[in-house]
Automatic annotation (TrEMBL), chain B:
All residue ranges annotated as the FAD-binding FR-type domain in the record: 14-113
Signal peptide (residue range): none
Entry superkingdom: Bacteria
Pfam family for this entry, one: Fer2
Species per Swiss-Prot/TrEMBL record: Novosphingobium pentaromativorans
2Fe-2S ferredoxin-type domain boundaries: 237-330
Name this protein carries in UniProt: Oxidoreductase
């Protein structure tokens, strides 16, 4: 089916509201006020004194001034304009120049949970926010894995980031100096799907590893390389990527002779055309070496800049051609399954969302 | 199926507009030209096609026909009557002057690139329709294209007079019942190395040209063609598709595509072009009883021989049944948490 972006799509919603999205890395949220826009909802994030994260609507109930330019008062936040104070649940706890508190005064409080180094928020109907629905991505704080990540603000629809990841053919052309080579673009792939999931698997057997991977493996000779892309709608992707000396059993399931990574890609929609792109590289080898973590983080940052450049240029081009209908190729199968899964989630909540918007 | 009737899919939800049949003329005993009057007509470049909604009796579908020309407020298409078609040409031949049709805005997926030093236009049967417009445009720009035109008999050369006027000696006609057989290798050899070949015709002819082009060591990018996927090596007939992974068995009627039948039965397939170009709808063949009639241009000749995949939008099975494996694995097959946490509410 032809995918229409640009103006056409702007008439439609591009992301579901009833889903857990990463709003921040653990270390970004502390005893200060952090402003983030998640799915077009402005939020202020901070931690209570016991470390529990809080996410409130970033607008004072009284005059809409962003609370994020106010200040923390213990576990509460004080508006920087007239001094109204709101607690972690959004209820007003203090009003200036009166002995009582207006019972109506309240800002929206968003469900928020920290798990495996990410702070997740639920921008939609709070009644549906079940923490058990948070995707399990255990590697960032797992004893047998090491690594770190960062966040890149990208001026593009988060789905363009997903398109980018669901077809890693682009590594050959965008990341030629590090992780791409010709063998990758010519290797066949398989695409699978479920209701909310999609998976693209690609194996490059008995070929030279590109520079980054040759360095990680540190062994001479040809390699078997795997690249498995796992998608969970609306915006969770983790890659299983690695190389092993050719013929040591990786395609049959034994990756123990090689190096294996989990690369997390979590592009959270901010507005319709901007996103917070959270990413991390976790490895199961040489895990005691902090320098290795730093070097991979730096390399990852360089790769991210290459993606960001292409994706932002693509968003500009899409905006310049609002009526353009994309022609999908065979390599786009993974992103088409991913978009179908996203569209299904949006369709399911279309009515509740309208009801909520009408409140 | 007619050479210019491209693959059809489910009735489109596109923005249909109305066209009125202003004139009908038989340009050969089996090719009928329709002059259609419509509002807001735009001149379309050579290689454009018009999507027409057709009534197949039990349901609606659509067919695409190459635009022969636009002339003021009218547009001309030509349709070959094919008794073995999937019903579109019979519907078109049933039209009378004054009837109305639902059509899309014309669209061009087979653009002519100007400025090549030499052109060879190659047409088979009703595949002449886009070539007429190309010959006219090239001649108007002072290019001197050569045209090779093959048809079943000398009666079956549509637009012959106009082409003779335009091209003179640069028009070579090859009727199947004629004395000289079309020698593709010789025709390609005759085209200078930097020349481009544009072709439209039945799948068998196009395959032969593609092979001859490759054998001659010509660059792939200089061979331009339009695919239609609606003609194959075998007659379109009903067949059965077994999908053991989903416990489904789907019957594809003779006038319907395998893709439409799968979608209607709830077997999800991604697709784009619906005419055998993009390869998105290629499904894995587990087992085939009968002959898989590959009608796409996405898979290579080698892949067609291997028979491991088929493009569901155009390819069919002659005399039997095919067992396929679709991309569905279910959410449970993917790890996003212990016991599929994050997925349990989506079943």
């Amino acid at each position: 089916m032809a995918g229409i972006l640009g103006e056409e799509n702007m008439k439609q919603r591009t992301f579901p509201m009833n889903a857990w999205y990463v709003a921040a890395w653990d270390a970004e949220v502390g005893r200060s006020l952090l402003s983030r826009t998640i799915c077009n909802r402005k939020m202020v994030l901070y931690r209570k004194q016991d470390g529990t994260p809080v996410a409130l609507e970033d607008a004072c109930w009284h005059r809409l001034v962003p609370l994020s330019i106010g200040s923390l008062q213990g576990d509460d936040v004080r508006c920087g304009y007239h001094g109204l104070v709101f607690g972690p649940n959004g209820r007003c706890t203090h009003m200036p120049s009166q002995e009582t508190i207006n019972p109506s005064a309240c800002v929206k409080s968003f469900p928020v949970v920290q798990r495996h180094r990410f702070v997740w928020v639920w921008p939609g109907d709070a009644a549906l926010a079940d923490p058990a629905l948070i995707p399990d991505l255990p590697w960032p704080d797992h004893a047998e894995w090491a690594g770190d990540g960062s966040m890149t603000e990208v001026k593009a629809d988060y789905r363009l980031v997903i398109d980018n990841l669901m077809d890693l053919t682009h590594e050959t052309f965008v990341h030629a100096s590090s992780i791409g080579n010709e063998a990758l673009a010519e290797a066949p792939f398989d695409a699978f799907h479920g209701e909310r999931t999609a998976r693209v698997e690609r194996w490059v057997l008995n070929e030279e590893a590109p520079p980054f991977w040759a360095g990680q493996l540190g062994k001479p000779g040809k390699t078997d390389r795997w690249q498995i892309i796992n998608f969970l709608a609306p915006s969770v992707i983790y890659l299983e990527v690695g190389v092993a000396p050719a013929g040591t059993g990786a395609p049959e399931g034994d990756r123990s002779q090689g190096v294996d990574m989990r690369v997390l890609h979590l592009p959270t929609p901010s507005t319709d055309k901007t996103c917070y792109y959270f990413w991390a590289h976790l490895r199961n080898y040489n895990i005691g070496d902090q320098g290795h973590t730093r070097r991979v983080l730096n390399a990852g940052g360089g790769i991210m800049v290459e993606d960001e450049t292409v994706i932002e240029a693509q968003q500009v081009a899409i905006d310049e051609h609002p009526d353009h209908v994309f022609y999908n190729l065979n390599i786009d199968a993974g992103s088409m399954w991913a978009r179908r899964a996203i569209d299904r989630m949006i369709a399911v909540e279309e009515e509740p969302y309208l009801a909520e918007a009408a409140e | 199926m007619s050479a210019s009737a491209k693959a059809a899919g489910a009735a489109s939800n596109g923005p249909w507009t109305e066209a009125r049949v202003a004139a009908i003329r038989d340009v050969t005993p089996t090719i009928r030209e329709f002059t259609l009057a419509m509002d807001n007509i735009r001149a379309c470049p050579p290689g454009s096609h018009l999507r027409v909604r057709v009534d197949l009796g039990d349901r609606q579908d659509h067919r695409s026909y190459s635009v022969v020309e636009t002339d003021g407020a009218v547009l001309r298409i030509a349709v070959k009557l094919q008794p073995e078609s999937r019903g579109g040409s019979a519907f078109m031949w049933g039209l009378a002057v004054g009837d109305t049709l639902a059509v899309d805005a014309p669209r061009c997926d087979f653009p002519l690139t100007y400025g090549a030093p030499h052109y060879l236009l190659l047409a088979g049967g009703v595949g002449i329709t886009p070539m007429v417009a190309m010959a006219r445009q090239l001649a108007a720009r002072g290019a001197a294209p050569r045209m090779v035109y093959a048809a079943r008999s000398s009666e079956e050369f549509a637009y012959r007079r106009e082409l003779e006027d335009l091209l003179g000696e640069r028009l070579a006609l090859y009727p199947s019942d004629g004395e000289t057989a079309l020698d593709l290798a010789a025709e390609i050899d005759r085209l200078p190395p930097d020349g481009e070949l544009y072709m439209c015709g039945p799948l068998g002819l196009m395959e032969a040209v593609r092979q001859a082009w490759e054998a001659a060591g010509r660059p792939r990018a200089k061979l331009r063609y339009e695919t239609f996927g609606s003609s194959g090596s075998h007659r379109a007939e009903a067949f059965t598709v077994k999908v053991p992974r989903l416990g489904a068995e789907v019957v594809v009627r003779e006038n319907e595509s395998m893709l439409d039948a799968l979608e209607a039965a709830g077997v999800e397939v991604v697709f784009e072009c619906r005419r055998g170009e993009c390869g998105l709808c290629a499904v894995d063949i587990v087992e085939a009883e009968g002959v898989v009639d590959h009608r796409d241009v996405f898979l290579s000749a080698r892949q067609h021989r291997e028979n491991r995949q088929m493009c569901a939008c155009v390819s069919r099975v002659a005399g039997g049944c095919v067992t396929i494996d679709p991309a569905w694995r279910g959410d449970g097959a993917f790890a996003f948490g212990e016991g599929g946490a994050g997925l349990r509410e989506t079943a």
